[in-house]
Amino acid sequence: MPRADGGLLAELLQRGVSRRSFVKFCAAMTATLALPASYTPRIVAAVAAAPRVPVIWIRGQGCGGDGEALLRVVNPTISEFLLQFLSIDYLETLMVPSGSDASATLEAILAKHRDGYLAIVEGSVPTADRGAWWTVGGRPIREVIREVSAGAIGTIAVGSCAFDGGLSAAAGAASGAVGVGQVVQGRLVSLPGCPVNPWNLGATIIHFLTFKELPATDAGGRPLFAYGPLIHNECERRAHFEFGEFVQAWGDEGAQKGWCLYRMGCKGPQTFANCASVGFDAGTSWPIKAGAVCIGCTMPAFWDSMSPFSRRLPSPVPFFPDVTVDQVGQVAVAGIAGVAGLHAVGSYIRAKRQGAERRKRALAPPVPAAVPVPEAAPAAEPVAVPEPAAAPAPAEPPNEAEPAAEPPSVAEPAAQPAPAEPPAPAEPPVPRTAAPDIEPRPADGGER
Ligand code: SF4
Ligand code: F3S
Q1: What pLDDT band is residue 315 in, cutting at 50, 70 and 90?
Q2: Which residue of 234, 237, 286 sits with most ligand 1 atoms within 8 Å of its CB, as the best mutation to test the pocket?
Q3: Is the alpha carbon torsion for 104, 109, 114, 116 positive or negative?
């Protein structure tokens, strides 16, 4: 990225911006980023030394309100600073060239900033009819966005249309509009809102200058610092909600007293954004402070999912109009947690019981080993017994210690074991070679 000599602060001082207002601006950005005040010096140092960031701002299918939101704020502080920080080289809203001349300008700027720039895209991307619904110089905007984003160090999609198609993708729309995230590869953050809050755009760029990366986002690519808070939780009319003080009709006593707009259709309980804490027009106001309901413009597909804007969304639980989707979700999560807890307790008790049984078995006296019961010998085995005739005659008289006292039934040596009756398996087999032992011995023990 090109670097300005002396950094941004030197350039701002040259342009008449005081050091005090610069530090004040950085402190406000620190708060917008939901960082502790102790981060302010770090942000001041980083931004003061940062280069002026080249920006290519592409306008897709939409009303152009996001560019207007940046350029036409009543209090010019944020736009002044952003325009000093940024070198917006391409923004069709402000450019003289159009059509093919605009395309030629864009090519020249891309060639000039080959080492990096920031891409900002507002508006949706039509996909029907090969993108003919929104073209620049005859090229579908989808191709232009892809080309610009490919060479960018980061892409920021501003406004609800760039987030998910917005109004162009609402029920009945025909252009097949999608958000920028569906056509761009690489690092992208989305800042939905109708229009985008310029403070959030400024804070995102300050985060980039300070930490050299885009801020952490939720699953939808929205920075957590800006789209984490629930509007209902930060709303200045929340106390009236708790006390049951509601505006019942426009202009009634409750409306004049600033009571809660819940019954007028406020979607603050379903909407995540930092509008209440950051505000618009340098924090002077925001929709609910001005007396209007929140229509949930930072939420996905809000034109369909949050309408009718002037009525409460139907309750997800019949006959309980005040039960919200969040509460249903909390009950469901609690139920699942309860079942998981019961399962865990049951598993614990079962494991304990099994352990106790194992210990009990280990302490019990050993049971005598059961005498192994040999399997019945197959009927074919006896066939392997050698014939007595083949037995060699012993050279010496047999040892008397030998189990001569337990002669097998040898009275009939000639009798061959019946193949059908295998020897009793509990007794060791007696080799037929011992046949001479079993003959009657002379009484004197002499040789025969
Ligand atoms: Fe919640 Fe809306 Fe009432 Fe504010 S006005 S407390 S956001 S319901
Ligand atoms: Fe939009 Fe509601 Fe904020 S309407 S601007 S999200 S208060």
Answers
A1: low
A2: 237
A3: negative
Please, what is the Cα angle at 361 between 355 and 365, to 5 degrees? 155
Q: Are 329 and 300 in contact (CB under 8 A)?
A: no
For domain 229-324, give the fold.
Answer: Cytochrome-c3 Hydrogenase; Chain A, domain 2 (4.10.480)
Dig out the tokens for 427 from the structure.
Answer: 């007794």
The CATH code of the domain at 7-225 is 3.40.50.700
Q: Which atom of ligand 2 is nearest to the CA of 231?
A: 7
Question: Relative to the CA of 262, which ligand 1 atom is closest?
Answer: 8
Residue environment code for 176-207, b if the CB has 16+ CB neighbours within 10 A, otherwise e? bbbbbbebbeeebbbbbbbbbbbbbbbbbbbb
Choose one of 264, 275, 284 to mutate for the ligand 2 pocket test, by most ligand atoms within 8 angstroms of C-beta: 275
Say how many Å lie between the CA of residue 31 and the centre of ligand 1: 23
Which ligand sits nearest to residue 231's alpha carbon? 1
Report whether residue 269 contacts ligand 1, using a CB cutoff of 6 Å: yes
Q: What is the dihedral of CA 120, 165, 184, 70, to 10 degrees?
A: 10
Per-residue pLDDT reduced to its tens digit, 163-178: 999 999 999 999 999 9
Residue that has been written with the tokens 């090519």 in this structure: 107
The ranges of the chain annotated as CATH 4.10.480.10 are 229-324
User: Which of ligand 2's atoms lies nearest the C-alpha of 287?
Assistant: 7
Range scoring the smallest mean pLDDT among 239-248, 259-268, 403-412: 403-412
Contacts of 62 by beta carbon, 8 Å cutoff, 6+ apart? 122, 123, 124, 159, 161, 162, 166, 167, 168
Q: Using the atom order of ligand 2, give the atom closest to the CA of residue 297.
A: 1
**Quick one: pLDDT at residue 437?**
45
Start and end residues for every CATH 3.40.50.700 domain found in the chain:
7-225
| Beta carbons of 193 and 236 less than 8 angstroms apart | no
* pLDDT tens track for 374-392: 555 554 454 444 554 444 4
Of all ligands present, the nearest one to the C-alpha of 280 is: 2
Residue with tokens 């789209």: 227
Pairing of strands 86-91, 135-136: unpaired
Amino acid making up residue 291: G
Query: What are the pocket residues of ligand 2 if the criterion is a CB atom closer than 6 Å to any ligand atom?
Result: 193, 231, 271, 273, 275, 286-288, 294-298
CA of 187 to the centre of ligand 2 (A): 26
3 state SS for 100-140: HHHHHHHHHHHHHCCCCCEEEEECEECCHHHHCCCEECCEE
